[in-house]
Design goal:
Helix 5 (about 155-165) runs antiparallel to helix 6. The chain has about 290 residues and is α+β, with helices and mostly antiparallel strands. Helices cover about 45% and strands about 15% of the residues. It has 11 helices and 11 strands. A hairpin with a 5-residue loop joins strand 9 and strand 10. It has helices at about 15-20, 25-45, 85-95, 125-140, 155-165, 175-190, 230-235, 240-245, 245-255, 260-275, 280-294, and strands at about 5, 10-15, 45-50, 60-65, 70-75, 100-105, 110-115, 195-200, 205-210, 215, 225. It starts with a strand and ends with a helix. Bound molecules: adenosine-5'-diphosphate and magnesium ion. Adenosine-5'-diphosphate binds near residues 56 and 206.
Amino acid sequence: MTISGQLGGFPVPESLAVTCSKTEERTRWLEGLPQLVRGLALRWELELGAPFTDDVTCSWVAPATRRDGTPAILKVGMPHFEGEHEIDAMLFWNGDPTALVYEADREHGAMLLERCVPGTMLRTLPEPEQDVVMADVLRRLWRKPPESHPFRPLAAMCANWRQETLDARDRWVDPGMHREALQLFADLPASAPEELLLATDLHAGNVLRSERLPWLVIDPKPFVGDPAYDATQHLLNCAERLAADPIGLVRRFADLLEIDEERVRLWTFARLAAECDDYWPWSDRLQIARTLAL
Ligand SMILES: Nc1ncnc2c1ncn2[C@@H]1O[C@H](COP(=O)(O)OP(=O)(O)O)[C@@H](O)[C@H]1O
Ligand SMILES: [Mg+2]
């Protein structure tokens, strides 16, 4: 990935510039970013490095050094639906098993985080090893939020997806299966055995090697709901293994997570069958979904 040359020399990763060009609100956010970053660096007394350019589509993230020499990371998030309350969630988990928050500015979606060193991504490990670490961090993350909390229910995210899937009705390949998935998006949140704080999008690119704990989580998209949902993102990222043995992989991961295999199977089916984007070939996706539906 490259750095885009716009904004008078302020470095913007190309992938972030592309995401921001899609709406007027984001274009305006990007235009204000140089001033915002300069202000934060002054207020929090930071020496900033060049921003990360890989894996950044929704935020501006750069290594920073605090006045006392502590290595840190400055993250400024673009306003987006899933990312709301990321700061609240990082403060709730308070370093276990997440990167610590040194400073936060909710109004501007900015955080100064503990830097994970060496910061190697979990996805550099073989997938079966990833399963074990991922299960460990997910189980640590799943905690009951306090009575009064700002987080949205998982049902709200599911309702959003239901609507997106309905809007893409002309692209449905197997209408019966799409309808079944839509029904599950309504039923599964309602029958959750417990309601815990979830990371929802946790994949092996957002779990980084660290020293304080062997692995730390960054970049959560917090919602409150059924922990079985949180198993799906990692499973969907292990596409080849999932295609080779869908039931076996779901069972293995549910066992590692010590949660109900049946609910993981249903959530994984629902996600595979309901989504209408093109990130996976349809034939593979339908085949796996059909096996999981049996
Ligand atoms: N606490 C951290 N320690 C080390 N590197 C980090 C940290 N937070 C973010 N990064 C780096 O910045 C990249 C983007 O951060 P991330 O929070 O995942 O942003 P995005 O929301 O755009 O995905 C990560 O892939 C990682 O390389
Ligand atoms: Mg990320």
